[in-house]
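Extended Data, panel c. Modelled sequence:
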Amino acid sequence: MKPLAAALVLVLAIAACNDNNTPTEKDYANAPKFFPVANYIRDDIKSAGSEPIGVQYYFSSPQKKDSSYIGLDTMKQLAQQAFLVPEIEKENFERSFKETTFLDETTQMATLTYQSMDSTTIVKRVDVLLEPGTQADDVRTIYMEKMYNDGDTAVIQRMSWKRTWFKIITLKMLRDNPTTVETLMIGWDPSVDVKKMRD
């Protein structure tokens, strides 16, 4: 079981305690700890090397498009650089972010949203989408949003993480110039064609 198990075991316990076996938004709000986003992603990166795989790489920008295969070490380096930033490590995360929760009663999907309370952080928002009642290490998607300046260019990155792939959409805005969009998709599941998921 992954380090995040305790967080999701709490979800399962909450569900068991309710008359209708369904956790409420209040139950999530009263959870004592933030979801361990960094540890979850770190474990996914580590487990990607558990068997021989081909890593798909897709990149698109106004200047070029590239579709190929890359090495596992390159994939892990890109993933760590993009997602495992200091701001989402436990101590910084709990100090600088505020958690809100939403439970969709129709889909029975829970969303944990972490919004930065510190204007100096590059990471502005993290969403964790999970399904109560499933296995303790089953998380549907993690979404992360970054905003920062690169010289005179304002940059927004919208980043999605799933167990066997990740996607980064980068918007670059320079005064008096049109916004440029770059898309990076990397997948290490042979059943997933990242080129079909680029839009």
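Strands lie at 55-60, 65-70, 97-104, 109-116, 123-130, 139-150, 153-162, 165-174, 180-187. This feature is highlighted in the accompanying rendering.
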